[in-house]
Specification:
Glucose Oxidase, domain 1; 2 domains; eight-stranded mixed β-sheet; 10 helices; 14 strands
């Protein structure tokens, strides 16, 4: 298996995951709150899955869930367990980029499986697509979304996506080109996508539909990251952009009709692009956080106001 080079043009779904299967719970980023972890593990069990904990889930080393070596070793131990059908991350935070160069992709390639997360895990998920040719899932995490309690829609989305019951269609608001566009769905947290630009882990955005979501960023930093994407030449390479949850500094949801907002800034930054911009996708750092397959073909239909991802999109 080739483990370097550009984005594999066709990602395939991992083997399906169903109730009764063993799901690994990993922590490659920030330290995990013990109470939220317990709540999330209980939620997984209530859905019929058997959680398998990484050895570092209760570790703390400054702003990380253990040292770089500890986080990697615990993750690799989960990946080496052939009985683990999927790995769902406990939380985001910070620290993934520190260990990304040392991930054992050959080990991960021996046992194709679903990987689920978002936020700080964005670069890892995109590398699963690029290096393994596997779909990865932008979706709920154990000590975050599962801990707060998934809505019925979120639970159904998670179960369906991991079982391979696709395509999925979600309503969005659109502007720009009215022509329907198609391309692989890639992206995630804007700050993490921007952090990979100019590195070996920069995603290939050629002809892609770019998912962007963000939380806790003041407007000037959000604008700086969008400008970085534009100056890197990546915006010009896209087929379209679809925005998930956008929440500014302080966590207040930002609406399209409010004053200086992240969404207004995104619309302004992309107003001259030839492709459509969509927003309102229920994905990211707020509820509902639907499970989306990264690497699969997506179709953004502006006229109908919908995004369809998966076979038959």
């Amino acid at each position: 298996m080739e483990l370097s080079g550009p984005l594999i043009s066709k990602a395939t779904l991992p083997p399906p995951v169903r109730p009764g299967d063993r799901i690994g719970v990993a922590a490659l980023s920030g330290p995990v709150d013990p109470d939220r972890l317990l709540a999330g593990l209980d939620a997984l069990r209530s859905m019929g899955y058997e959680p398998v904990e990484a050895a570092n889930l209760r570790s703390c080393c400054g702003i990380f869930a253990g040292s770089d070596a500890e986080r990697l070793a615990a993750f690799h131990a989960l990946a080496a367990d052939e009985s683990v059908a999927a790995i769902v991350f406990a939380r985001g935070g910070s620290g993934l980029l520190r260990v990304l160069p040392d991930v054992d992709w050959r080990l991960l390639g021996r046992r194709p499986r679903a990987y689920v997360g978002y936020s700080d895990l964005t670069p890892f998920l995109l590398q699963v697509v690029a290096r393994l040719g596997l779909v990865a899932f932008h979706g709920p995490m154990v000590a975050a979304d599962f801990a707060r309690g998934l809505t019925g829609r979120e639970r159904a989305s998670f179960e369906s996506a991991l079982a391979g019951a696709l395509p999925t269609t979600l309503p969005v608001s659109c502007e720009g080109s009215a022509e329907a566009v198609e391309g692989p769905l890639v992206g995630g947290c804007l700050s993490m996508v921007a952090s990979t630009l100019g590195t070996p882990y920069e995603p290939d955005l050629e002809d892609a539909i770019l998912l962007l979501e963000e939380v806790g960023e003041p407007l000037y930093r959000f604008d700086r990251m969008l400008t970085q994407l534009r100056l890197s030449g990546n915006l010009a390479r896209l087929k379209g952009v679809v925005a998930g949850h956008l929440e500014g500094e302080g966590g207040d949801p930002l609406r399209a009709d409010s004053g200086d907002t992240l969404l207004r800034q995104l619309r302004d930054e992309t107003r001259n692009e030839p492709w459509p911009l969509a927003w309102g996708l229920p994905a990211g750092h707020a509820a509902p956080n639907m499970t989306l397959p990264l690497g699969l073909l997506a179709r953004l239909d502006s006229a109908a106001g919908r995004l369809t991802v998966g076979p038959g999109a």
